[in-house]
Write a structure and sequence with these properties.
Elements (H helix, E strand, L loop, with lengths): L4 H36 L3 H20 L5 H18 L1
């Protein structure tokens, strides 16, 4: 257990950041899963509408350093490829 005030504060801050990051990652995973379900249902019209929301969440997560920007770009590319195959 840390003794210094700065160490105690950094533990509190890290805990807050961790919960925020986990929440953002879960929301992102949920959005991707919803998109994949739309593709599985062969509902490409709804999937095309929904993909902008997924892209927005990926970009925001990358901007906040929750995920690596390259990972966000790779996921966007792969999702677009799957959308193209289903259409």
């Amino acid at each position: 257990m840390p003794r210094r005030r700065t160490s105690l504060k950094s533990n509190r801050v890290n805990k807050r950041r961790h919960t925020r990051n986990v929440k953002a990652k879960l929301q992102l995973k949920k959005a991707i899963k919803q998109f994949q379900e739309l593709l599985a249902k062969k509902d490409s019209v709804e999937a095309k509408k929904f993909i902008s929301k997924v892209f927005s969440q990926l970009d925001k997560a990358a901007k906040k350093n929750i995920i690596h920007p390259g990972m966000a770009n790779r996921k966007k590319s792969r999702l677009m490829r799957r959308l193209g195959k289903s259409a």
